[in-house]
Fold each of these.
Amino acid sequence: MRRPGGVPSGTVTASSDGLDRRAFLGLSARTALGLLAAGAGAQPGRAERATPGETMQRQPSSRTGSVNLFLCGDVMTGRGIDQVLPHAGDPRIHERYVKSALGYVELAERKVGAIPRPVDADYVWGDALAELARVTPDVRIVNLETSVTTSDTPEPKGINYRMHPDNVSCLQAAEIDCCVLANNHVLDWGVPGLEETLETLRKAQIRSAGAGRSLAEAQRPATLEVPGKGCVVVYAFGSGTSGIPPSWAARADRPGVNLLRDLSEETARSIAAGIRAAKRPRDVVVASLHWGPNWGYEIDREQRRFAQMLVREGAVDVVHGHSSHHAKGIEVHEGRLILYGCGDFLNDYEGIAGNEEFRDDLALMYFPSLDAATGKLERLDITPLQIRRFRLNRISQRDASWLRDTLGRACEKLGTRLELNDDRRLALRWA
Ligand SMILES: [Zn+2]
């Protein structure tokens, strides 16, 4: 059964440069200005929401004794993607050059050809759905990098993501169990936007972690029962290093994000102590962290120490890091999986130039299998996909090789290796 978990301290305030790192450096003013006139065409639709209640019961995956997860990075279904989904919201946005979310659809179409509109709720997941059906993970966890709202009170930050609440059907189409919300976009449309996000997910029976109407709610983990195996307990934290403004920190009486004070050893220890105190036998604990800059393979020394400390203190079994737009290196520390940056999984960037060398069009599905009793990593399979026309597609052998080489080099620095299989999937190897 569900239960509230421990509330680790070490989160509340943060120092941050407050920058929004989703600023699109490659979008020239000239190109963008051409989009100012992008038409409005919102199609308000009717909601088909599930009734509130407990989680969906899914057949446990076949490997008994193992808990199998699906993890990925940023699922950015707002803005341009929201405009092609069945219930497109108000396209008006308040960016410097682009004034309609449809501008991002148009930009992408100029590069990759026509994108159908409206699409079915499951369209964006494309070939990921067949992968999920093949692997049958017990629990599916994503970082939801958008507010889910019709709120029209943008935060003054230049980039504001929102997805219409009726488009939550898109998350349901992939049977997402848990959305991590401790990121730099969940409050893009203010507190009303956050509250509507929380309420929409609750009604859709999708659990969330990392943001709430109070500090206690923002800190509370999502506990997902895996019948016959145990529980997966998801704690989510945001770091100022990902661009979350300090003012977004949840307080006792203020809605917001579960924001880390810093990435110090002391903070890691105190969080680990809180988690450890709440941890029960057969709990597999995931610490989901939105941290670090958007580009580059370098892993900050502070981040590495922080992740290792959460593991070493006997608290965390999987560190699920995200914020970087591309996948970063993977480590196995004391038998536990550390993903430093999972990369973007869905975005509307196809028409945006810049940073192509990082290939943020490649999206990775991480499928770790963990020993249900110990939380130790048994295997990690990765299915790489490519975002094209706002949809996930199987990648070419050439792209898979590029990923094996590039991400593999980042992994080698952390003591792991990537193997490419004949089926264009990757497997992690470690000593
Ligand atoms: Zn982010």
Amino acid sequence: MAMTPHRSPWLARARTSWARVLLWLAAAALAPAAAAQTAAAVRAAADQQQAAVLETLKTLVGIESGSRDVEGLTRIAELAAARLLAAGMTVEVLPSRPPGFDPRARGSERGPMVRGTLRGTGERKVLLIAHLDTVYPRGMGEKQPFRVEGDRAYGLGISDDKGGVALVLHTVELLRVLGHTGFAELGVLLNADEEIGSAGSAALLTQLGSEYDAVLSFEGGGVDIDAVRLATSSTASVELRVTGRASHAGANPEGGRNALVELAHQILKTRDYGEPGVGLKINWTIARSGEVGNVIPALAMAHGDVRAENAADLDRLEARLAEAARDRLIPDTTVEMRMRRGRPAFRANAASRALAVHAQAVFGEIGRTLDVRERSAGGGTDAAYAAMRARGGVLEGFGLRGAGSHSNDREYIFVSSIVPRLYLATRMVMDIGAGKVSW
Ligand SMILES: [Zn+2]
């Protein structure tokens, strides 16, 4: 066999792979510099948006949008839709239709939702959610206009959740300014019935949660300390209904079956079924029985308020209540204990935890610390609906720092939280979209 005058293929391969390693080493050495450059560019762009965010907040607060104010909600939805459109998104304004919706029923009408989508060139799909509705009835806003005092910007609904809406709009805008499309898809969903339970938007939120790799929910981001949340509470109620038999209370009491006494028995037995250690609460709040003073009551009902941090705790409580209903004090009475589940609890999965850890790192890029809350403070949010069948992670608390939600003339956000939180949201979209957060 003749000697080849050329380099052996092995040597050529080795040289190529060494070249690759060297290139990789060079890239690795430059990566921190590139990352720092990105951080500086996003930070500078976020800085430039602060005045515009305040202007947006003023505009949003200026449109009253209580959950039942369809006219106000339609106006604020149109404004948000126009902003997303201008930022390059494909936008739809969608009706909110709770299950069993009947347009003839009084008060059943809900405000519209706004959905925006933008295709990109990256790896993962990111969804940003916030709500347009507030708890305040029409007329309250007129007497309490938007105003800035020192570091505080006041306004009805500014912390819950117009600050979140403003941040979503400006995150999309900031990405446009930066010319960044390094995500598979960027989505926005702004709903209009969060404060009344999200019945008209829950199904869509759950569907989108199953389609997007990550959902960032823009409810308040803490009060004095910046935070994100890995848990929110669920709400539920119990309807207790006792059926007995009526009879004359004077002439024939033994002929009756006293529903009121059985109700009292059930309430006393179940009042301690809460488990404070895990955030499970049951509190009886309403009871009704009897109409006439000399009749043994045949009917009695009670209502209990229930809070829990996860579905398993509710299941356990429901089972105990069912068992309690079988053990009766008054023979021949019927006891029905029916639990109605409202908003579910949100519990973080591994992907949500990975998002939280990454959010802390991103916030660290601008020299700030981000608190990650493991326990719910008692409230429920739409993060729970997004997480029900999530294919990836869900994280709550991307809104502005602020306080005074659901109060009168004391609701505000911290102006100094605008730039850091805008930076956080924008950088999270960039890194998740590029596949830099793994779970
Ligand atoms: Zn809210």
